[in-house]
Amino acid sequence: MTKNKKIIEDLFEVGQRIKEVHIKLNPLILKSEITITQWWAMFCIDKRKSTTLKEFSNDLKIAQSTASGLINRLVKLNLVDRVIPNEDRRKTFISLTSKGKKMLDTHTEQSKIIYKKLVEKLSANEQKIFLSIMQRFYEVSAELLKEMNKGKQ
Prior knowledge:
By secondary structure, the chain is mainly α. The protein is built from six helices and three strands.
């Protein structure tokens, strides 16, 4: 196995193990009636403050019918408001309710506590290296995304 192939295999394996741990951690963090998918949906809605169902489904890269079902469940939990303006009934605007915003904020704070516990297990030097690598990984990922989107045009 070439050196590059080995590191790719190792990165993939570590990534999968991290994902498995996070899947198990999320219910402990959320401590609520919502799923991680619903939390992610609320996060995306909050980013825009108010958005259309079409924009929301595009953000999540899911079909509008799937997005609609997800929003229906969040509306039933009183976490999301849905507004259909009289002037254009084809559009549906969605935003977080105060209950939804509070739940999202609570989850974010609980996630930061988990991150703090994880980071505390690293030395100061390891923390610095880890942050540097994560920042670089983000930069490279963003560059790759731009390149791949250029290819679509």
